[in-house]
TrEMBL record:
Keywords associated with the record: Methyltransferase, S-adenosyl-L-methionine, Transferase, tRNA processing
Organism in which the protein naturally occurs: Cuscuta epithymum
Pathway: tRNA modification; wybutosine-tRNA(Phe) biosynthesis
E.C. numbers: 2.5.1.114
Record GO terms (molecular function): tRNA 4-demethylwyosine alpha-amino-alpha-carboxypropyltransferase activity; tRNA methyltransferase activity
Protein's UniProt name: tRNA(Phe) (4-demethylwyosine(37)-C(7)) aminocarboxypropyltransferase
Entry-linked InterPro entries: Kelch-typ_b-propeller, Kelch_1, MeTrfase_TRM5/TYW2, SAM-dependent_MTases_sf, TRM5-TYW2-like_MTfase, TRM5/TYW2-like_N
């Protein structure tokens, strides 16, 4: 699933929440909180919107947000998204209720009356009407089995006492509404994963343990649950086994389980992920796990079209991922059409909703005719092959008199669409070649298939496949591969055909491979363009546009969280000096988001200066920035800054004297970046403090100096962290 806009790393999360908006105007998923994200993994309080129509990820940047948290729930009721509970840190379990207004785009902490709602996390929530039902979870070390209800109209909590066959205490379970019933599956009771299914009737207030036909889903916790048409679905969870890559569907009409293996999920870890339905698509966001031995793993977002799967029998998509070839019960119909009319008729059927998207188009009569699968509804209204269909329509005014028949259909009735099909001599036939489309392969799988073909043709060893990239980044429309991939000289024998295949598999217009950042003082990029005439890109982050030549200016994805941190500062009325401005990595967040009064931007790389000036104009902040070309030790202003940014790695120490001279007599804040061994963080902090004190004294500044905050941005290399020390300098006595 390709994502544009914000970096996909923003949704490398687990323990987050996701709520769907699926109506005629919006197809969106709202994602809140969780653990992970770009740079240093941490609990988050970001609100993200994934627009499924445009596959675009955006950050909702508003003030007064809830605390960062994991293990909470969120639900959309009316025009608000409600966030309830969660864990802010190991000692801070929450019971707060926040509402985000979808119209006003603002957060509000709600004051609720009624009974006490105990703090909890890893609970489950579902909404029926205006009421939100909360079951289970963990409070400290206690696993809960209470059912609390929040009336979002009266803002009151009530607790329902258990009656009937009720579930045992549990956490990390899932719950969904189906009509007026709530269904709960699985969870963890403190000793073992659970595999039971319970229902709760919101009208009679009775619990019931459900007895279902067919093979039951395996016991699990931290899984996802969803409702699609007449089915309740379960996917993912712990313990991670092959069955967690099955999609378990409960047919609520027959009360029968069926299980379908989804092979495209075999590389995903759907633990503490979220599942939402948008149209016929299942949207899976996040999921992952942390391990001391193997590090942290997050899953990419996944989109699965569920419609084709409903016709499959249990297990029909086997381990090989191929259709079994078994017949599908019931009659299926298709429209046979001459090839010359195929595109028009297909567009007509698709536009009206009569094309059966779960089945494949195929040809007959050596390609003379094309067969288009149609829906059951269409087959009931279109005359069969034994009837003279022209008798149904007035053909005195041919539809083809219009220059664009499809344009007429978009604003006309189904009658005109049927008339188009009749004039194209469409014939309804029984579909004897029923083939369901396979789920789409991942980009990596498509790449592997293409590359296997290329190296086999040239007799190259299959061991080369170990050098295929498992991850890549996007800068605008450039896909950037890591510098460690395709490094064996044997790849050169394939030539440009290799890069064309890789670019096609990734849906990339331009392709590049990352190189090491030049150790020169100008920090030049060594990005190698593999496909494309130039490296000039337009990249948007946090609502800020960065334009630059990626082959000449470096860009760091890992610094996103630090740029966001700077953007969330209140710099109103502040003068800021950025001693290493580059293309505007921190200059732009200070100006666009933090509302700085004025920023002095020091930079000596001519290509970066060109990009910086362009970015200031594009973001409409050029009037509040002074670009100073040259060595910051020479060109930086003195005694003007409330805040100084020193964003140079591995060390900015060469400009610490300049930074002290740049601050006002009253002092200010320095954001000092550096790469530091994890075992030397304390000594580095002491070195920073002592050095700034010594420099200030030598410059005649009488300051009290302290480190207000230490930001651990990311791991730069094994056991080496990128740190930012926020050093506060205050005139003594103030």
């Amino acid at each position: 699933m390709l994502i544009t806009g914000e970096s996909i790393e923003r949704i490398f999360l687990w323990g987050h929440s996701a709520s769907a908006i699926d109506d005629a105007f919006d197809k969106k998923v709202l994602i809140f909180g969780g653990f992970g994200g770009p740079g240093r993994h941490a609990r988050r309080n970001d609100l993200l919107i994934l627009d499924l129509e445009f596959s675009r990820l955006e950050v909702v940047d508003v003030q007064g947000m809830p605390l960062s948290r994991v293990g909470h729930t969120s639900l959309i009721v009316g025009k608000h998204m409600y966030v309830i509970g969660g864990r802010a840190d190991p000692l801070n379990i929450l019971n707060d209720v926040w509402a985000f207004s979808l119209n006003k785009k603002e957060w509000k902490l709600l004051q609720c009356s009624g009974c006490l709602f105990p703090p909890r996390h890893r609970h489950a929530a579902a909404a029926v009407g205006s009421k939100i039902y909360i079951f289970g979870g963990i409070q400290a070390d206690v696993i809960l089995s209470s059912l609390h209800v929040l009336d979002t109209e009266a803002m009151t909590w009530t607790e329902h006492q258990a009656e009937g066959e009720h579930p045992c205490p549990r956490h990390s379970h899932s719950m969904v509404p189906y009509g007026t019933q709530l269904y709960i599956f699985g969870g963890y009771d403190g000793e073992k994963p659970l595999g039971d299914l319970f229902s709760f009737d919101t009208e009679t207030l009775l619990w019931k343990k459900e007895t279902i036909h067919g093979k039951l889903p395996s016991p699990r916790f931290s899984h996802s649950m969803f409702v699609y048409k007449n089915f309740i679905g379960i996917i993912g969870g712990c313990p991670v086994t092959q069955s967690q890559y099955e999609l378990s569907l409960l047919d609520m009409r027959s009360h029968q389980w069926k299980h379908i293996v989804v092979n495209s999920l075999e590389n995903d870890l759907l633990v503490r992920s979220t599942a939402n339905i948008i149209g016929d698509d299942l949207i899976m966001i996040g999921g992952g796990a942390a391990c001391y031995a193997f590090g942290t793993k997050f899953s990419d977002p996944v989109k699965i079209n569920l419609f084709p799967l409903l016709s499959l029998k249990s297990g029909e998509l086997g381990e090989s991922g191929e259709e079994s070839g078994k017949s599908i019960d019931g009659s299926f119909w298709a429209i046979r059409i001459e090839r010359k009319y195929a595109k028009l008729v297909k567009d007509v059927l698709k536009k009206i909703g009569w094309l059966d998207l779960r089945r494949k188009v195929y040809s007959l009569d050596d390609g003379i005719h094309i067969c288009l699968p149609v829906t059951e509804f269409f087959s009931s209204i279109f005359p069969d092959k034994r009837t003279d269909s022209s008798a149904y329509f007035d053909s005195s005014k041919p539809i083809f008199e219009s220059e664009n028949p499809l344009k007429d259909i978009s604003s006309s009735t189904e009658f005109k669409a049927l008339k188009v099909l009749t004039e194209c001599h469409a014939t309804k036939i029984e579909d004897k070649v029923v083939k369901v489309k396979k789920a789409s392969n991942t980009s990596l799988e498509v790449m592997k298939e293409s590359v296997v073909s290329l190296i086999s043709q040239r007799g190259l060893p299959l061991q080369l496949l170990d050098q295929l990239p498992s991850r890549w980044e996007r800068l605008g429309d450039i896909v950037v591969l890591p510098r460690t991939c395709f490094k064996d000289p044997q790849w050169d024998s394939i030539g440009t055909e290799l890069w064309s295949a890789v670019a096609k598999s990734l849906g990339a217009r331009r392709l590049a491979r990352q190189g090491r950042i030049s150790p020169s003082g100008t920090r030049d990029s060594n990005l190698e363009m593999l496909i494309g005439d130039n490296g000039w890109v337009h990249h948007r982050e946090n609502g800020i546009l960065y334009s630059f030549d990626a082959t000449k200016c470096m860009f760091s994805w890992g610094n996103l969280c630090e740029k966001l941190r700077m953007a969330h500062l209140d710099c109103t009325d502040e003068v800021i000096v950025d001693l290493f401005a580059g293309i505007g990595y921190f200059v732009l967040p200070f100006l666009v988001r933090a509302n700085a009064k004025l920023v002095y931007a020091c930079e000596w790389n001519p290509m970066a200066i060109e990009a910086l000036r362009n970015n200031l104009e594009e973001n409409l902040v050029a009037d509040r920035c002074v670009v100073l070309e040259g060595d910051n030790r020479i060109v930086a202003p003195k005694g003007v800054a409330h805040r100084v940014c020193l964003g140079l790695l591995p060390s900015s120490e060469g400009s610490w004297v300049t930074a002290v001279r740049t601050l006002r007599e009253e002092g200010g804040v320095m954001h000092i970046h550096g790469n530091v061994k994890d075992s030397e963080e304390v000594s580095w902090t002491q070195h920073v403090l002592q050095s700034i004190e010594d420099i200030a004294r030598s410059e005649g500044r009488v300051w009290d100096i302290s480190v207000e905050h230490m930001e651990r941005v990311k791991w730069y290399a094994p056991r080496i962290r990128h740190l930012v020390a926020d050093v506060r300098c205050r005139r003594r006595g103030e």
